Amino acid sequence: MALSRPHLRAKPDLPPPSNRTLLQSWGALPPRTRLIISSGICVFALTGLMISDYLEKTALDVKLEKAQREHDLAASKNQ
Q1: Nearest to 33 by CA among 60, 65, 10
Q2: What is the total count of domains within the chain?
Q3: 24 near 17, Cβ under 8 Å?
Q4: Looking at the domain assignment, is residue 57 inside a domain?
Q5: Helix then strand then coil, % of the chain, to nearest 5
Q6: Which residues have CB under 8 Å from 30's CB, separation 6+?
Q7: Nearest CA to 7 among 30, 39, 25?
Q8: Does 2 reside within a domain?
Q9: How far apart are CA 11 and CA 27, in angstroms?
Q10: Domain coverage including residue 53
Q11: Nearest Cα to 5, choosing from 39, 36, 31?
Q12: Cβ contacts of residue 22 below 8 Å, gap of 6+?
């Protein structure tokens, strides 16, 4: 006995795929597929935020070290 899966069928009131808007196409996807795609986008965004924070911190540390060396060099020349 085959189970009916109405949530996996396209809605009958939707136009053919070539004439759908992006939102209509998104709504026609099964809920599990939408969840997987949304989760992937969130993981990608979180990874980008973490990488940018790391790069910002390391770049700032390098700039501070360079400024400190220049300050020390200028101070030693003035003595």
Answers
A1: 10
A2: 1
A3: no
A4: yes
A5: 75, 0, 25
A6: 7, 8
A7: 30
A8: no
A9: 9
A10: 30-78
A11: 31
A12: none
